[in-house]
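Tutorial, part two.
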Amino acid sequence: MARITKKPDERRQEILAAARDLFQSAGYEQTTMQDVMDRLNIAKGTIYHYFSSKEALLEAVVEKIVDESIAGMRRAMPALKGNALEKVRFLLTAGNMADENREILDPLHQAANMEMHHRLLAVTILKLAPLYADLIRQGCAEGIFQTDAPLECAEFILSAVQFLTDQGIYPWSPEVLVRRGLAIPGIIEAQLKASPGSFHFLNPVEGSGNLK
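Running the prediction step on this input gives:
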């Protein structure tokens, strides 16, 4: 049989797709690099040329999930009606990336993957912040928000909420998480000089929005 030669990016994407499917169907822990190789009928040298370990493959799969999620948000933005606050609410209450990819993302909470977890959280925040900054700028033009640093506000808010509510980083009790959840809307409103109650939909009692 003639050897099939593929372009590097095509091969890399093929490996990512196979790994993602296996991680979701069988679970990350149960999936081996050999499983991915068998799925694609490729040699060991091929898969390790692109990914040095299963952990590196997981990291690439998760980053791809993040990129797809953000791309979906950006595609949805032009069709959204309403002011900046309504658009922010849409983004915050849209599909939860963690719920939709639980078999893949749950392993990040394991102690052995903590460094990867932190790195991917930082990547997610840096990629999300410009999207939220655009909406903060719109809100400033509409008189809903007030800030001279929209990007920095977005980075600060995303970083604080992501890290301070992530039980994979801090083993908060349910009571502490509720307390933080109740405080977050007011903190964001103060940061953006928004009207009191503007972000009440983030209240864990009233809404299900989050920044993940």
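The radius of gyration is 20 Å. In part three we will examine how such features are distributed along the chain.
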